[in-house]
Amino acid sequence: RGTLLVQVRVAQVSGRHLVVLAEDMTQARRLEAIRRDFVVNVSHELKTPVGALSLLAETVQEAADDPEAVRRFAARMQSEAQRLSALVHEIIELSRLQVAGALGPGAMVDVDAVVAEAVDRARTTAAAKHVRISVGGDTGVQLFGNHDLLVTAVRNLLDNAVAYSGEAAHVGVGVRARGDLVELAVVDEGIGISAAEQERVFERFYRVDPARSRATGGTGLGLSIVKHVAADHGGEVTVWSQPGRGSTFTMRLPRVPSAALLEPPGAPDQ
Ligand code: ADP
């Protein structure tokens, strides 16, 4: 960061003239480093559940004559397999979002429908903890984008709000139309995030408390996906939080993103 990396090539020598081509390599190097880090992180993250599964399989074999133990280990194998499947799903989702034009052709999206679908999907985990989810704010708001990606983003924020709140807590979803922007906020009264951690939670695989994230089935990719969905819509996501008091994640999305973000007409479907 801060250094300009330039690749210099002597392109032509004629008589006493020398043509030198200088190419900015910083961006290319940076992208390459991000890609390499991602592959290393993914391999590391996949190793944990795969290792656990293999260990559990061994243990089941050894405990073959104890049906109760077999049942217990089989249940743990199932939950590890579910974690692995969630992780693979999110890795694929994130790789797709990192490609330009991830928004697809886009359409006018009904924000009420996005919120309703996300709340509906988060309901099972919320009910298990007796967490109440309420929706408020402006209704009838529309924005140009991708319905499914927006549902995924709101769902990830809701899942976190539930996971990092106590039993019987309250989680709110608020929609506000502000000029050319639509604000979508998910508010919780959970454990909160310290100022130092707030800067890092959107990084891939970053967790404040890895043990807690694991226990709640977290993958460490949820907020990274939200960040990409917001960026693909030409917007952003920010966090306000106080440890012990709760967190508010707000997506600010333009009703219509700038032309540069939209797929050119006739571009092939991905
Ligand atoms: P995870 O799958 O671990 O939840 P995320 O990318 O969704 O991964 O979030 C990254 C980390 O940010 C979490 O592990 C958690 O430490 C913290 N975090 C996210 N949302 C909240 C929240 N609503 N309240 C408190 N901490 C949160």
UniProtKB/TrEMBL annotation:
Group of enzyme by EC: transferase
GO BP term (any one): cellular response to phosphate starvation
Catalytic activity of the protein: ATP + protein L-histidine = ADP + protein N-phospho-L-histidine
Protein keywords: ATP-binding, Cell membrane, Kinase, Membrane, Nucleotide-binding, Phosphoprotein, Transferase, Two-component regulatory system
Keyword Transferase part of the UniProt annotation: yes
A GO molecular-function annotation: phosphorelay sensor kinase activity
Protein name: Sensor-like histidine kinase SenX3
Domain of life of the source: Bacteria
Keyword check for Amino-acid biosynthesis: no
Organism this protein belongs to: Cellulomonas gilvus (strain ATCC 13127 / NRRL B-14078)
Segments forming domain Histidine kinase: 41-257
Species lineage: Bacteria, Bacillati, Actinomycetota, Actinomycetes, Micrococcales
Coiled-coil annotated residue ranges, if any: none
Location within or outside the cell: Cell membrane
A single GO cellular-component term on record: plasma membrane
EC assignment: 2.7.13.3
